[in-house]
Design a protein that fits this description.
By secondary structure, the protein is of the alpha+beta class. The chain has two domains: about 290 residues, Aminopeptidase, CATH 3.40.630; about 130 residues, Alpha-Beta Plaits (2-Layer Sandwich), CATH 3.30.70. It has eleven helices and 20 strands.
Length: about 425
């Protein structure tokens, strides 16, 4: 008899469903906390209070950037860590340990809202329309944090506790470096498996590498009436990005694709996400900074990508007719993240798939993600099998972000079922 055979899924679903109102209220409260980069404290204070109310051992700790810099998974941060803490809640069984340990990880930070006037309602004022709960961060990924909290609460309401350590992590800075999750690893938190309820509506079995870099350009300023005699820094930055896009096209060609991404329409994406430059409408711009995001396949080291990018930039600069009048430099800040492939036949994955089938009554889908997540730290540096499995959401990083409340509750039921199966349970 498997561990899953001993779990009463109907009882778990009933216990989870009874928490629907509480879950929706908690998600709304979290969305009201505008946990943008560097502003995560209010949301983390709320999470800490929830963990304390669950009688978990709570560890709130600052990120030691000096210590992280020595780790191969480190990415250069773009803001200070002062006042920005991770919150970890630790469940230790009171009635005997006999199962396998588990980490639930989620990030509390959210991306900027963009042009707020395009939102139907203010982005940090949650609102519902049927099954959808709207607001920045609702899907990515505060609903995932709520789902694992509800999973643990549902088991407790059933008179059960996981019979192994369960570590609940709410981390900062997933959206630009992942150093929050890395800090948990460096802090010493380990388990036999990790699940991140990112809003992918699948089990993620692979993810891309991602790199951020900035291209800074200094040009030759002249009056706009003789613009043809100068070198516009903005134009040159766009020219350099255009040359780099040829590499994106090459990596997307069928003969250069990674096996796990053969079926994707366009797996490798280079994005010019931000550009700043110029001083005056009637002056050829002196300076420009372009912030870029590059995707690359699992198995490719960030150092290899950096070398390739710098060779392309050097050649583009060399062949430019006005190269003598323009300078540039490349700065690496933010993601320097490797990709990975997860064994879908590992016990963690097969157990999670079984739990999904048992709760949802259908087979789970598997997906190779074209972005990055904090799962890389567990798989690459912690020897901990980790995947993303979370609710259905849409417009993440876009306008009118929303998450399906039904799917959040279903994920909570799956996570509770997985916890009971993976960790075992004790009566309390």
């Amino acid at each position: 008899m498997s561990a899953l055979d001993q779990v009463d899924v109907t009882d778990i679903k009933r216990a989870v469903d009874s928490l629907r109102g509480e879950a929706t209220a908690l998600l709304s409260d979290l969305v009201r906390c505008p946990s943008l980069l560097g502003e995560e404290k209010s949301a983390q204070d709320l999470v800490r209070g929830v963990f304390e109310g669950m009688q978990l051992q709570v560890d709130e700790f600052a990120i030691d950037d000096t210590k992280l810099k020595q780790h191969p998974g480190y990415s250069p941060s773009i803001v200070s860590y002062e006042g920005r803490h991770n919150i970890v809640g630790l469940h230790k069984p009171r009635h005997g340990t006999r199962g396998k340990s588990l980490i639930f990880n989620g990030h509390i930070d959210v991306v900027p809202v963009g042009a707020e006037r395009l939102w139907t309602k203010p982005p940090f004022e949650p609102w519902t329309d049927g099954d959808k709960l709207y607001g920045r961060g609702a899907g990515d990924m505060k609903a995932g944090i709520v789902a694992y909290i509800v999973a643990m609460k549902a088991l407790k309401n059933m008179g059960l506790e996981p019979a192994a350590d369960v570590i609940l992590q709410s981390v900062v800075e997933e959206e630009c470096t992942g150093n929050g999750a890395l800090a948990c690893l460096v802090q010493g938190y380990r388990a036999d498996a990790a699940i991140i309820p990112e809003p992918l509506n699948c089990i993620m079995h692979a993810q891309m590498g991602v790199m951020w870099l900035a291209l800074e350009v200094a040009g030759k300023p002249v009056h706009a009436s003789v613009a043809h005699t100068g070198v516009a820094a903005i134009d040159f930055a766009l020219y350099m990005f255009g040359e780099l896009k040829n590499l994106e096209q090459k990596w997307n060609a069928p003969e250069h694709r990674h096996t796990e991404y053969r079926g994707h329409e366009h797996p490798v994406n280079f994005n010019l996400g931000k550009i700043q430059g110029g001083e005056w409408a009637s002056s050829v711009p002196t300076a420009c900074r372009a912030d870029l995001r590059l995707g690359f396949y699992p198995g490719v080291a960030p150092a290899e990508v950096r070398e390739t990018v710098e060779q392309i930039f050097a050649e583009a600069h060399r062949k430019h007719p006005q190269s003598n009048s323009i300078e540039y430099k490349v700065i690496y800040e933010g993601f320097q993240a490797e990709g990975f492939v997860l064994d879908i036949n590992s016990p963690m994955v097969t157990t999670l798939a079984d739990c999904h089938r048992s709760v949802a009554g259908s087979e789970v889908t598997f997906n190779a993600f074209t972005g990055t997540t904090d799962a890389r730290f567990f798989n690459l540096y912690g020897n901990i099998p980790a995947t993303c499995y979370g609710p259905t959401a849409a417009n993440i990083h876009g306008i009118d972000e929303w998450v399906s409340i039904d799917s959040m509750m279903e994920v909570a039921s799956v996570l509770a079922t997985f916890t009971a199966s993976w960790c075992g349970t004790n009566r309390i």
